[in-house]
Amino acid sequence: MFEEDFDAVPDPANWNIYGSPTHAYVSDGALHLVGSVDPALSMDVGGGVGSSLQQSYGRWEVRFRVGQGNGYSADMLLWPRNDADWPAAGEIDVMDVNEGDRASGLDYLQNLTATQTTSHTVDADFTQWHTVAVDWLPDHVTYYLDGAPTFTVTPGTFSAGIPSASPMHLALQLDQGCDDFIPCRDPSTPDQVVMDVDWVKVFRACPTTHPPAGAWEVSTTMATSGSSARVVCSSPAVHSAAWPASIGCHTPSPPHTLPRPAITRNNWSTLAGCRPISPPAATRSTATPPSPVRVNPVNRTPRLPKSLTSLPCTAPYPMMRIESI
Hints:
7-stranded antiparallel beta sheet
């Protein structure tokens, strides 16, 4: 899992800031994306950041809010590794809050061509803190608001299918605009419109196939009261068997504990909540991620921006063996 709390200046290895740093900065434990008329540029601009984490499938979560004001859209989207891969590789907008009153947002998905799109409107007061999320998996994309599903896309409900041609990265943007999608700045718009991002979490996806129940054990480290223990990777049948590189595991959220009586050598047990995962390759690019070419979902006119707990798996839990240290 990748997690960013924005308690410090974003690590350049993890984030690329679009445009002027005065329009994207961190303070008081949050990322602030600012839309305003930039005196140095003599033009109205927004701000944004792009993650360097390129990943196929998984879950993305963002806690955010955005101030009222026409002329700016708060967008959280998954964008292909290379700009040239759009539109064929698609895009997944976790949430677009384009209307100036911030009373609704848009779950949005596009694939194959610029005109093959589907979307769903979500009503909420986005001037207040909310957590939006999306699960991107081979057979569906599901959107969430504050933990509740709001919209699901499957190949059966969308003829263009689910994006799969490219890994994607998360972009957080306060886009400036004046078109059919983003109402133009007007006298009611404050001098500055600010989008705040409290945190971001990215999870890798579970496998589509799983090892047989009991075939492999969990690989992790556990701490217990007054003692410590190691969970050993091996097969119950052949204890020396190598842990398969394609299978990873996680335990429930810390602290990872077991009752002390369980901390005995060669004690075999199941651990509820420990589930196998086999994540698709997730690479952290060393190159600066491109600024996504944003597209108006109404008329699809391209416009440039101005400015691993894992997913739950359904397979039976594996076995583990505890060794005292």
